[in-house]
Structure formats: C-alpha cells, structure tokens
C-alpha cells in the first residue's frame, strides 16, 4: 500500500477508516480523515457523510476541491464541519497531506481540561512542544474560523481543539495515523492516571526536551508510522478486506 496514485490512496484511506473503527475511534457518522491527492488541483478525499466508518470503501470515498465542491459523481454529501476544518489546513499547509479529527472520550476529556495535555507520561512526553491549541467557537461551520484554526496549528502536526477533540496531521497517511495514535494514547493515559486520585510523578523538562531525539533512535530509520500502519492494515485484512472495493 505504498503507491501514491489516486486509487492507491483511496485504498489506503479506506483501510485507515476501518482501522480507526477497529480501535474504537468512530463516532456514529461523524468525524473525518482526509488525504490530499497528487497534482496541482488541491483535491482531497473525505468520507461520505452518513456512512459509518465500517462502511467506508475505496470507491465510496468522495473527492472534493479545496472550496468544498464535490468532484465525484456520488449520491452522498460531505460533512460541513469536516470540510471547513480539513480544507483550511490542506490549503494552508502543503506538508499536511493527511488530517484526522477525533471525538474520543479521552481526547475530549483532556480537551475540556484547562491545563490540556501534560507531558508526564511515556507517550505525552514524546509530544512535548508539538501540540497546538484552538479555543472552542461552537460548531465548526463558520468560514472566518479558518484563519484562527490555521494560526493556532502553526507548523505543528498535533492540535487539541478545546472542549471539542483532537486533530493530527502527517506528510503521509501512515505518519498521520501514528500521530493520531500517539495523541490519543497520551490522552488515555492522562485520564487513567488522573482517575487514580494519587499524586503523579512529574517528568523533568530536560527529559522532555530530548524526547524527540531519543525517538529517532527508536524508529531505526523507518519512515514515520510505516511499520505501525502496515501492521494494522494486516489486522484489518484478516477481518474484512472489503474496504478495498
């Protein structure tokens, strides 16, 4: 699944929707994952509004332009809030080829906390200084919010939408998947640790500051998310490979 043609990306993105569902990250028919298509037209793929993540396939993913116009011949519509968030970031960040947005319990719980994500667990410390924050402005359907959304993300690949949920980007779909997983896992551990009601062990700033360099050693030269995403695709293929159609 390493190709970059439209069909390759359709299959890869459809697999990603099935992986998110397998991991419990779906939210009825809501939320969205997008991938930019090759070429200069700024087209990207998004899920059909009204389908559950488990129903997404390569062929029913919808191609849209950067202004939200549907390019495909499809009976489906697209989520207005999803189009605003994803079109804003795809237009502003050429490196953000893939974007995910989640409403998980743990992600929303941390998004509701004033302090946000602390760097005091194994995964969150790896995200030290890599997470932006965007204040809640209500349902994300107002065009003028795009400017603030993009400004608050800046050059980061992770953002917590306060009172709302999580957003992750990547230069490839596997990288976006790994970024999403790391942010979600960080939130899960923070919520679990807080639920214990016991004093927490802090991680010093000097350790946090060198975490990115330590992570480079761990990845051993593999492209970001490549091994992890491939493992999850094999898991989904063993369960139900119908996403490829």
Name the features.
7-stranded mixed β-sheet, 245 residues, 40% helix, L-fuculose-1-phosphate Aldolase, 8 helices, Aldolase_II/adducin_N, Aldolase_II/adducin_N_sf, alpha+beta, actin filament binding
Provide structural commentary:
The chain is an alpha+beta fold and 245 residues long. It has a single domain, classed as Class II aldolase/adducin N-terminal domain (L-fuculose-1-phosphate Aldolase). 40% of the residues lie in helices and 12% in strands. The chain has eight helices and seven strands; from the N terminus they run αβββαβαβαββαααα. Strands 3-2-1-4-7-6-5 form a seven-stranded mixed β-sheet, sandwiched between helices. Helix 3 (105-111) crosses helix 5 (173-195). It is globular.
Instruction: Fill in the CATH topology.
Output: L-fuculose-1-phosphate Aldolase
Q: List the helices and strands in order.
A: HEEEHEHEHEEHHHH
- Regions with pLDDT < 50 over 5+ consecutive residues? none
Portion of residues in beta strands equals: 5-15%
Total DSSP helices: 8
* Major sheet: arrangement of strands: 3-2-1-4-7-6-5
Named at the architecture level, the CATH assignment is 3-Layer(aba) Sandwich
The first-to-last residue Cα distance is 14 Å
CATH top level label? Alpha Beta
Query: Measured on Cα atoms, how large is the radius of gyration?
Result: 18 Å
The general outline is: globular
CATH homologous superfamily annotation: Class II aldolase/adducin N-terminal domain
Number of strands: 7
Number of domains: 1
- Summing up helix and strand content along with how strands pair, one would put the structural category as alpha+beta
Pfam families: Aldolase_II
Domain Class II aldolase/adducin N-terminal: 11-191
GO biological process, one term: monosaccharide metabolic process
Family: Belongs to the aldolase class II family.
């Amino acid at each position: 699944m390493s190709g970059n043609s439209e069909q390759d990306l359709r299959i890869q993105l459809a697999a990603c929707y099935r992986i998110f569902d397998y991991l419990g990250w779906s939210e009825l028919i809501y939320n969205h994952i997008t991938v930019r298509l090759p070429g200069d037209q700024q087209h990207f793929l998004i899920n059909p509004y009204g389908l559950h993540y488990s129903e997404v396939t390569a062929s029913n993913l919808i191609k849209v332009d950067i202004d939200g116009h549907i390019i495909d011949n499809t009976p489906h519509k697209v989520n207005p809030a999803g189009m605003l968030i994803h079109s804003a970031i795809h237009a502003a960040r050429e490196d953000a080829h893939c974007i995910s947005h989640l409403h998980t319990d743990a992600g929303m719980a941390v998004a509701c906390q004033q302090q946000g994500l602390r760097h005091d667990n194994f995964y969150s410390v790896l995200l030290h200084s890599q997470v932006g924050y965007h204040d809640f402005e209500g349902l994300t359907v107002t065009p003028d919010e795009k400017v603030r959304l993009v400004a608050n993300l800046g050059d980061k690949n992770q953002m917590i939408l306060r009172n709302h949920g999580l957003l992750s980007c990547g230069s490839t779909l596997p990288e976006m998947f790994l970024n999403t997983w790391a942010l979600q896992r960080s939130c899960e551990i923070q919520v679990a640790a807080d639920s214990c009601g016991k004093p927490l062990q802090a991680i010093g700033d000097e350790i946090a500051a060198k975490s990115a360099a330590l992570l480079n050693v761990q990845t051993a030269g593999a492209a970001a998310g490549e091994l992890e995403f491939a493992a999850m695709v094999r898991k989904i293929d063993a369960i139900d490979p119908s996403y490829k159609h």
